[in-house]
Amino acid sequence: MRLKPAKVEHLAHKIAGNLQALQRMQFNVTAEQVAGAISRVIIADLKREVELEKEAEEILKKHRMTIDRQNLSYNTLVARTKQQLARKRKIVL
Predict the structure, then answer these.
(1) Does residue 71 lie in a domain region?
(2) Spatial CB neighbours of 32, under 8 Å, sequence gap ≥ 6
(3) What digits encode the pLDDT tens for the residues 16-64?
């Protein structure tokens, strides 16, 4: 998770406040509850990204000797593999 929980909470409150300020929708719950829901969505999305990265690393572990032998950048390959997995699953990073 790249964002600290306090930052996620701050962003969620800011988004909820902006949605309320637009006055294009009416909340049936408090702004605090909306911010909580937004926060849960953000955290779930961040966890899904971490899972993607772990899966990419697992895939690359199987090819570690080839990567080392060919002097390839492991971090670059993890990022590429993660993006390919995200594309396959239609996840926006």
Answers:
(1) yes
(2) 16
(3) 999 988 888 888 999 899 999 999 999 999 999 999 999 999 999 988 8
What's the pTM value of the predicted model, to 2 decimals?
Answer: 0.74
Rounding to the nearest 10 degrees, give the CA dihedral for residues 49, 54, 57, 62.
Answer: -140
Q: Which domain holds residue 74?
A: 5-88
* 3-state secondary structure (DSSP) of residue 32: helix
The rounded Cα 53 to chain-centroid distance in angstroms is 10
Placement of tokens 């911010």 in the chain: 35
- Phi, psi angles (nearest 5°) of residue 37: -65, -45
Which of 74, 36, 85 minimizes the C-alpha distance to 93? Answer: 85
| 25 is a domain residue | yes
